[in-house]
Design goal:
Structural class of chain A: mainly alpha
Number of strands of chain A: 2
Structural class of chain B: mainly alpha
Radius of gyration of chain A: 19 Å
Number of domains of chain B: 1
Helix content of chain B: over 70%
CATH class of chain B: Mainly Alpha
Largest sheet of chain A: 2 strands, antiparallel
Number of helices of chain B: 13
Shape of chain A: globular
Number of domains of chain A: 1
CATH topology of chain B: ABC transporter involved in vitamin B12 uptake, BtuC
Distance between the termini of chain B: 10 Å
Number of helices of chain A: 11
Shape of chain B: globular
Oligomer: heterodimer
Strand content of chain B: under 5%
Order of helices and strands of chain B: HHHHHEEEHHHHEHHHH
Distance between the termini of chain A: 51 Å
């Protein structure tokens, strides 16, 4: 194996992982920016997405239907959770909400074990992308290329939605100052629910497309949460741009770490985070602290 | 609503509290005389996790710093004790003193960085730091990597070997009493009042002239030392330590205990640990759905009883702290 194709292949692997992290962390960062809630159950939505995808593929035999409907299911669960459990807590100290979402991690993980069992379940990639292609001498599974293109397209679509539409303007206003936005006559409660459900749906989507790469297993939610939180911290809490930049950085750092420093690969993302926080405590695109 | 009003208790109530404490300790110490091996094991587990939970309560209930990375110190205490007990003479210093100090030193370093920020940032930083320890323990061959360190012997103090179940039980109860009393003194000391003041209104304490950051750091270190002690005891109790001790769900579990029991009460933390461990052993013997029930219990407590068991009892009986 020669050096350059290997490097290129790793970079693409890192990119596909980064794109997954982006879909996951964008909801996390918007939910935090708007609701002041660090949703620790966000990884659980990712897990729920993977399992909902698994069942939908089994039922319909069609990956694309699963890709469409699994996020809707997860988004619905998110909306329910926000309405029923988080809403009553908005008047309490924000930490109560963080603690509540922690309880949901256990709940969701055990429900998944109950329904689907605790074993690792592999999810087949769609027939269209089951092969692999060779680019610059590196052999890449074509499904990974699909993930990259799809994820980047989603990033552009989200950017357009948030920066170029009225709905996006309301969300940005809510992130900046929710109380003032409500004062301008916006039904902020409904926006909260939509943002929470949207973030959950994106995490679910991330889970579906991660399925063929990483398989589905119950603790997957708890283990993806930490990289996603680190992305949010690196990018700056509440920043869409930051979550994209942070995802791409962490995606590369973790992939290259696994290849080049197998003995300390798990440590790398923390080193990256420490370095960023040392020079920019508010994250790359975050508003200054206090 | 201030659960632990820092007004001195009247002497009669103070004497009553001391009496209750002593009676409880005696009951704990003689428990193996009239209980089987399994209940005694559960009690010992409660004592160890109770220590761990009290140290977190000092941090979140009194000083107002909700840490999601308290497992770092529990794990450091456990790993240092396991290393020293397996590789050197198993005594008091290798089994307790050095592990606790090592955990304190780690708390000093982590605290220097994380006590500067608050709220969500504090949660994230502590979480990330503890996960760093997990990553190291999981991948370092000299720490046994995934499998951790097994075959940890129990130490001997003053020539008495703690391998006998009776002596180990008394050792646990004595240490529990010592640390619980120490923490009780700490929260009632001027230092304890100051950290409660910081919790309630940080900028006012700063304006009054207290070096707020130094107090927060000291609270963080004290909590780290106690958590390290609990971790060292845990390694001796189980006879092994694995990277899971560092994993963030360990921090989460001890947080659950404090919340279920009730914050800013110390005793509540122990009650929470007892409730958690008894519920776990009870539920797991009937169903595999322990995590589901744990999650639901926690959600119900956060939604409907934010004061925990102690808060609920006080509300029912109408007692003031």
């Amino acid at each position: 194996m020669s050096f350059l194709p290997d490097l290129f292949g790793q970079a693409l692997n890192g990119l596909s992982y980064g794109v997954l992290l982006f879909l996951l962390s964008v909801g996390l960062t918007l939910i935090f920016g708007m609701l002041d809630v660090v949703n620790l159950a966000h990884g659980s939505f990712y897990m729920l997405g993977a399992y909902a995808g698994l069942s939908l593929i089994a039922a319909t035999g069609n990956f694309w239907l699963a890709l469409l409907f699994a996020p809707l299911v997860v988004g619905g669960i998110g909306a329910l959770m926000e309405r029923a459990c988080l809403r009553p807590l908005y008047r309490r100290p924000p930490l109560d909400q963080v603690l509540l979402t922690f309880g949901f991690i256990y709940l969701f993980e055990d429900v998944v074990k109950w329904i689907w069992g605790g074993r690792i379940r592999s999810i087949p990639s769609p027939a269209l992308f089951s092969g692999s292609v060779t680019i610059f001498g590196a052999t890449i599974p074509s499904y990974r290329l699909f993930v990259i293109v799809f994820g980047l397209a989603m990033a552009v679509a989200l950017w357009l939605l948030i920066e170029r539409t009225k709905l996006g303007a309301i969300v940005r206003a809510g992130v900046f100052d929710a109380e003032m936005t409500a004062g301008m006559g916006i039904n902020i409660d409904r926006v909260f629910t939509w943002v929470f459900a949207g973030g959950a749906a994106l995490a679910g989507l991330s889970g579906v497309i991660a399925g063929p790469i990483q398989s589905a297993y119950p603790p997957m939610g708890a283990s993806i949460l930490i990289p996603a939180l680190i992305v949010v911290v690196i990018g700056g809490l509440g920043s869409l741009k930051g979550s994209l930049a942070g995802s791409l950085i962490i995606g590369q750092a973790e992939t290259f770490g696994k290849a080049w420093l197998p003995g300390a690969s798990m440590l790398i993302i923390y080193v990256v985070m420490a370095l960023v926080l040392l020079f920019r405590p508010q994250g790359l695109f975050g508003r200054p602290l206090r | 609503m201030t659960p632990s009003d820092p007004v001195r208790e009247r002497p009669a109530r103070g004497a009553l509290a001391v009496l209750a404490f002593v009676v409880t300790l005696v009951l704990l110490a003689v428990f193996p005389l009239f209980a089987g091996a399994y209940p005694v094991k559960l009690l010992q587990e409660i004592l160890i996790w109770g220590l761990f939970a009290m140290s977190l309560d000092l941090l979140m209930g009194y000083a107002g710093m909700v840490s999601f990375g308290h497992s770092a110190f529990f794990g450091v205490g456990g790993y240092v004790a396991a290393l020293l007990l397996t590789k050197s003479a198993p005594g008091l210093s290798s089994g307790l003193a050095v592990p606790a100090l090592a955990a304190g030193a780690c708390a000093l370093v982590i605290g220097l960085f994380s006590t500067r920020v608050s709220g969500v940032y504090f949660i994230m930083l502590t979480l990330a730091f503890s996960q760093m320890f997990y990553a190291v323990a999981f991948q370092a061959a000299w720490l046994g990597a995934e499998d951790g360190i097994v075959g940890v012997p129990r130490p001997s103090i003053l020539g008495v070997s703690l391998t006998r179940p009776v002596s180990f039980h008394l050792y646990l109860v004595a240490l529990f009493a010592l640390v619980a009393f120490g923490l009780w003194r700490v929260v009632r000391s001027p230092f304890g009042r100051v950290i409660v003041g910081i919790h309630d209104n940080e900028s006012r304490m700063q304006a009054v002239g207290y070096p707020v950051n130094r107090y927060k750091l000291l609270a963080f270190v004290v909590a780290g030392v106690v958590a390290g002690t609990a971790g060292a005891l845990y390694a001796q109790f189980v006879g092994s330590i694995t990277p899971d001790a560092f994993f963030w769900t360990t921090s989460g579990e001890v947080l659950l205990m404090v919340i279920i029991g009730g914050t800013r009460t110390l005793g509540g933390a122990v009650l929470g640990a007892a409730a958690f461990i008894l519920l776990q052993s009870l539920v797991s013997s009937y169903t595999e759905r322990w995590m589901l029930i744990l999650g639901l219990t926690f959600i119900v407590f956060v939604l409907f009883a934010p004061g925990g068991i102690v808060g609920a009892l006080r509300g029912r009986i109408g007692l003031r702290a």
